[in-house]
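ok trying again, last paste got cut off:
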Amino acid sequence: MEAIVFLGTFNAAEMFWYPSPDLCLITILSRRSTDNSFDLMASFLEMCLQRWGFCNIAVLGSEHGKQAWKSYFLRRSHLELKMTKGRSGGDYTCKSLRGHTGRVVGCVYLSGNSPQLPDFWSSTPTVCSSSSDGTVRAWDVQQGVQLWCSPVQSPLTGMVADGGHGGVITSDSTGLLKAWDGQSGQEMSFYSSASPQCTLLPYSMEGSSFLSVGTSQGSVHTLTSPSLSKLSTLVVCDTFKVNLLLASPDKKWILAGTTENMDMSPKVLSIQSVTCPSEEEDPLCQCLPVSGCSAAAFLPSQPARLATVHCKDNSHSNTHHNKVLSVFDVIIKKTRFKTEIQVEQVEKFELVFEGWTSDILLEGKGSSTLVVAAHRELKVYTVKGELICSFKDHTEPICSICVDSFRVVTASRDLSLRVLTWKTDRDKGLTLESRYHLLGGSHSMSRGFSYVVCDYSTIVASVEAVDGKDVLKAYSFNS
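nice, full thing came through this time. structure:
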């Protein structure tokens, strides 16, 4: 029994049982109290939050809290059971989103389902996709219909969501950036970066939204969002493309670097320095003490804990037989005369994978778990280097992964998505369990999946088509 939730007080007048292999949900509806009812409620609520640690408990104190809680938990346990089983035709529906006449280069959620909403089942997820055909398109995920399409422009090369304003920002092959309204598809603003390849990083700080842009000339431009007015420019890696660009969870730091030069080290930049530049002082910047960085990720539940995959000391070979994962904490040190960034190494361990590839994917979960994908393998480590679990579910390389609090989804060139769910084991602690495949179509028509994104109840993945007209596959789970 993993979760028991009490609504009202301990003396039960009515109980609802939800049958599940690993979940028993008891809803207490009586308002009569006993001396120990509050202690018992707190205890069982704590047990619930161990299972669903990211619940929204705001509805508990509302006038309609009993029915809201009952509906919320029954819906959620029902949905998670279906997301765990993944049976075609009963647990989910699949829609093909067709319309692009080129390669899909980006896909983001404009709005999505979240378990933090008490009525998450009633929201309608929408995604935006961008393509080399020069268009941005918005889609209703559940209905599988197009909501709007932008006018044709130069081939697009990337896209990110502007979460603070409900729109998207795109880059094209001429270096032109554009902000688009998510509701209407209208162009809102533009900025010329003069870079044919851009890496885009949106973030918000103190109520304001910004966009940092890594260019093929080695610079990072920082702009306001969505107005796209330039605030600062900083050279990070000279003539090499900035294709590594991440923001820390506390929105104090940016990691910027390149994977194209094994001799270069990524740099940590102060967000305050690039969003509010000073004419009297240079932006705060500090190199990481590693070179040949091929992947990086911040731990989402830590203010500024950074994991990087890089070459061993004195080794610039691009195989995984000599890759190291290092974990750093980024802090600020102030003295009487100056302020500087300090990067303190917390852990370091070697990665071991069969085969080799230049592409490696790294994501963090919580405060101490790392998910690493290389070639056909997926591995989960603690930050101390302990291997928690390893999977070889795919027959072709993994090209994209999506990690959230409930599951991990991997997309592969073998034209399948693999769904794995997190589980707390009594002996091993947090671990990952492989569940099922979602198939993307015919190999005669497709070259495989190229990208995957998820919200709580849906998965959207891009299928690279043989004829060059990529298709989005949208999987909606039934709540």
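cool. DSSP finds three helices and 34 strands in the chain. The mean pLDDT is 84.
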